[in-house]
Design a protein that fits this description.
The complex is a heterodimer of chains A (314) and B (389). Chain A is α/β, with parallel strands linked by helices. Chain A is 52% helix and 10% strand. In chain B, a hairpin with a 2-residue loop joins strand 10 (270-274) and strand 11. The chains are: A alpha/beta (314), B alpha/beta (389).
Chain lengths: 314, 389
């Protein structure tokens, strides 16, 4: 790759180095990602966050100071013995994003699924390596990850993020050296079948389909069914489902100002429907849309947050 | 253009209200038309066209050979240019400084910098498509293959014509069009050479097909003594029926119910009306020159992933629907625009700019959904990134 291009892709290449060095795009320790949830004996399902809500939260926080600068400062702080986690972890945005997988754990458990969680297998799925074509790095990474699944006896995985789902369920097939019998289930596939009860709410909502969830994985109906169970009015934009519009996140690390314009345009598009709330189901969509939302915009919220708020625990 | 320039340009129009308004209006209109004009019949036809293109690209070498032979039998001069430089040399042999050349809009000629090269050579070249003329006058690159000047408002356009052509025009679209008609009419009549690209070529019959709404291609290919068609080899399909299918799918997905003019040229104008003796050059051109351009295409055709880019009909559907194009306009491109453009730029114009475009692509995948031929651009983008690990 030419130096001039490397310069434009600096942040991306830094994240790649971090993944290769520590298994983590941001160079953060396991402690940051671990979920505080009860241990379950003889689980049927294993929750896989792919750490992506945590990453999206941290990136949102870091974006305030400039990503590249934050990554550098983080590395420097670690060198001189200060844990950058202590600073990031205090932010409200980070707290919000970190709570989402915990809320899902509770919803799944509440729905009667025997779900376990363990940070040992819950690694970043390596999406960035694959998306940007670092294929040799990715091959190694994904094979290691599936070895971990095998060694820990992880058979049925419940994913949260569309990107984890895509990589584990579809992409990995092309790159795994040994065939895997791990089953990948997106959480909406489980929750939509459950008998969870939700408080009815007389509001108008729009659902922003995450591109990869709708177009690659093909999950568009399950989230809608769950939203409708909350009794609110779900308004559909023509540019939904397989015609959904990008939230801007993919270009965030290369051209943040472009990313923000795309996010802004998507909010305006959905705002035309006259909704109170825009629901999405992807950490990066949530971060990207939230980063440009203004006070008079519909509230941007993750599907898990939306459901959790309305859940009637029995 | 350098890599840094590309990335600077990509961000340059984000906050430009008139640029963004032009693009917003065009995409909104496109969405309305698409809803009406794409029906089951057209979707089925598009599936047929995909098969036609798959066959043609898999047999590209053979297609080129047949097309060249039949066009020669029809009385055309036929050339195969392996790259942009060769194509320009062939064209320069057919024109001379001082000639007036009237030209139809063509992405293939944009690719080889033909307008710039011939102007430098001393040819008085006029783009005769209204939008493309504006691009020529503003010295810019097209924003879209079908609507090259969609980023310009009527005020910008009137100002441009007043400045560059001393036009006495208001910003009324009728007034602007009337002026351009009058201005170009003189050029058409005095032109020594007419030049166009092609939308499809029938190999079996040796027919060049072009389509348009304005009537400028009619005049460019019909009025001057010499007609030159510059044609990418991927445009060749087996039969004239195949070629018509390609055209119909292209105009529908470009947002038109029907296209105003379809022009078919098989050879020089001729008559046998005097004692059955064939005389060339009656009302149409006496000479027809067909320059087939390879310029990386046969390499693409051999690649299992990139060959799909050659199926592209240039209807522009994916561009209108690209979320990055919708905010950055033609700056997400360099002549060829958006995701599919990255693949084309990489193989035919500039590796480094094509690659820069590939890294800026969102890979959100809507392009594939709206493409008549369901070309898997996200997959090609990934393949390009992979090759530069």
């Amino acid at each position: 790759m030419e130096e001039e291009l490397k310069d434009q892709l600096k942040l991306l290449l830094e994240m790649r180095d971090n993944i290769n060095k520590s298994g983590d795009a941001l160079g953060l320790k396991d402690k940051y990602y671990d979920l505080e949830v009860p241990k379950i004996e003889n689980p049927e399902y294993y929750l896989f966050t792919g750490r992506e809500y945590h990453i999206a939260g941290a990136l949102s926080e870091m974006a305030k100071y400039g990503h590249s600068f934050s990554l550098k400062v983080g590395l420097f702080m670690r060198k001189i013995g200060i844990d950058p986690l202590k600073i990031i972890i205090k932010s409200g945005v980070v707290k919000r994003f970190k709570e989402i997988p915990v809320k899902l754990f509770e919803l799944l458990t509440g729905a009667g699924y025997k779900v376990s969680y363990n940070i040992q297998y819950d690694k970043y799925p390596g999406t960035l390596l694959w998306e940007y074509g670092f294929i040799n790095d990715f091959k190694l990474y994904i094979n290691n990850l599936f070895d971990v699944f095998k060694n820990l006896g992880v058979k049925k995985i419940v994913t949260i993020s569309p990107h984890s789902t895509e990589v584990l369920k579809i992409v990995s097939k092309e790159y795994l050296e040994n065939e895997s019998d791990v089953e990948i289930i997106h959480y909406t596939e489980l929750l939509s079948k459950s008998n969870l009860k939700f408080r009815s709410d007389n509001i108008k909502v729009a659902y922003h389909d995450p591109c990869h969830l709708a177009r690659v994985i093909g999950i568009t109906e399950e989230p809608r069914e769950l939203i409708k169970r909350c009794g609110c009015e779900l308004l559909e934009h023509d540019y939904s489902k397989d015609l959904t519009t990008c939230c801007g996140a993919p270009v965030e690390s290369i051209a943040p100002e472009v990313s923000k314009e795309i996010a802004r345009k998507r909010i305006d598009e959905l705002k035309e429907l006259g909704v109170d709330v825009i629901i999405t189901a992807c950490p990066f969509c949530l971060a990207s849309l939230s980063s440009v939302a203004k006070s008079d915009d519909p509230k941007i919220i993750d599907l898990i947050e939306f459901l959790y708020e309305r859940w009637i625990k029995t | 253009m350098s890599i840094t320039e590309y990335f600077t340009k990509l961000k340059s129009k984000l906050k430009d209200p008139s640029y963004r308004r032009g693009i917003n209006i065009a995409t909104a209109n496109y969405r309305i038309k698409r809803k009406i004009y794409i029906d089951d019949y057209i979707e089925n036809l598009a599936r047929e066209v995909r098969k036609i293109k798959e066959f043609s690209i898999d047999n590209l070498e053979e297609m080129v050979k047949i097309a060249m032979d039949t066009l020669r039998e029809n009385g055309c001069e036929v050339y195969l240019a392996e790259n942009a430089k060769k194509a320009l040399e062939i064209v320069k042999d057919l024109v001379k400084p001082g000639d007036i050349l009237v030209k139809g809009k063509s992405m293939t000629t944009e690719e080889i910098m033909l307008r710039e090269e011939l102007t430098e050579y001393g040819v008085e070249l006029w783009e005769t498509d209204l939008g493309e003329l504006l691009i020529q006058l503003a010295n810019e690159f097209p924003s879209h293959p079908v609507t090259p000047a969609i980023h310009m408002t009527r005020e910008t356009i009137a100002e441009l014509l007043r400045e560059k052509l001393n036009a006495n025009v208001s910003s009324d679209p009728e007034d602007i069009t009337r002026f351009v008609r009058g201005f170009l009419r003189k050029k058409f009549i005095n032109a020594a050479i007419g030049m166009t690209g092609a939308n499809a070529v029938s190999a079996r019959d040796g027919v060049i097909l072009t389509m348009e709404n304005e009537g400028n291609i009619r005049l460019s290919s019909g009025l001057p003594d010499k007609y030159i068609a510059v044609v990418g080899i991927e445009k060749i399909v087996p039969t004239i029926q195949d070629a018509f299918r390609v055209l119909e799918v292209t105009w529908r997905y470009a947002g038109y119910k029907v296209i105003n003019y379809i022009n078919a040229v098989a050879g020089p104008s001729k008559t046998g009306d005097i004692e059955k003796i064939i005389v060339k050059g009656v009302h149409g051109p006496r000479e027809v020159h067909v320059i087939f351009l390879d310029n990386g295409r046969s390499e693409m055709a051999k690649h299992p992933v990139f060959k799909e880019a050659l199926y592209c009909l240039r209807c522009g559907a994916c561009i209108y629907e690209c979320p990055l194009f919708q905010v950055a306009g033609g700056n997400f491109g360099y002549k060829y625009i958006a995701g599919i453009g990255a693949i084309w730029v990489y193989h035919t114009i500039s590796k480094k700019i094509g690659l820069s475009m590939a890294y800026s692509c969102l890979r959100d995948g809507r392009c594939k959904i709206v493409c008549p031929l369901k070309i898997d651009t996200p997959k090609m983008i990934l393949e390009l990134r992979k090759s530069h690990e």
